[in-house]
Write a structure and sequence with these properties.
single chain; 224 residues; alpha/beta; two-stranded antiparallel sheet; binds adenosine-5'-triphosphate; binds magnesium ion
Amino acid sequence: MSKGIFITATGTDAGKTFVTALLVKKLRQAGYNAGYYKAALSGALRKAGQLIPGDAQYVKQTAGIDTPLEQMVSYIYETAVSPHLAGELEGNPVELETVLRDYKAACGLHDYLTVEGSGGILCPIRRDMYMLEDLIKAMGLDVLIVAPAGLGTINDTILTIEYARQRCIGVKGVILNWFHPGDMMEEDNRGFLEAYTGVPVIACVQEGDTDVDVDPAVLAELYQ
Ligand SMILES: Nc1ncnc2c1ncn2[C@@H]1O[C@H](COP(=O)(O)OP(=O)(O)OP(=O)(O)O)[C@@H](O)[C@H]1O
Ligand SMILES: [Mg+2]
């Protein structure tokens, strides 16, 4: 029976893909059959006429996943806007059934599936129908939240945690990205977030890290 976790963030470009690649790599190096799935990706580059899902390609390469890219992403949009708008502009809006079908297929290939969201938790996926939170709920997953470390991190992270909780989405942990160990404010952010929300900061990732400092068995336990 496959287990999964959903990676969301305090916003777009927070480092979801970068962190996800390290988490999947960590699990795979420890011998877990770990894979990756993303429902909708915007701003894909076109190479030789073909749209390349950059996030999936990065995680595949970094973590050494042999699954074909086509099985890792359901909707690949060239337009670099939110999926709800890209889907309209390109005449290919997200269908929940397609996402769930592909998600289940990815579950069938891996024991530990890491699902990357688009943008932050309130990213619109399809106008008047689905926000990202609806996909998380339809998949029945808990979340990890990636938050860039710095000024404003406490506000952004608590807003995301509280919103998830209000929508009955379980929050398993926070990962601080672009963290500077020893930085007084960032160290305080970590302690404050844990004390205020009760959510553990499971890892702090620094600029250019090629490994994430988390016990793979502890990480695997977060998947459900
Ligand atoms: N710790 C880091 N060290 C170096 N580069 C990083 C780090 N974290 C993120 N980046 C870089 O910052 C950019 C944004 O990160 P990333 O693509 O992971 O964000 P994202 O949250 O997945 O964005 P999206 O919402 O578009 O999926 C990328 O170029 C990525 O390689
Ligand atoms: Mg990404």
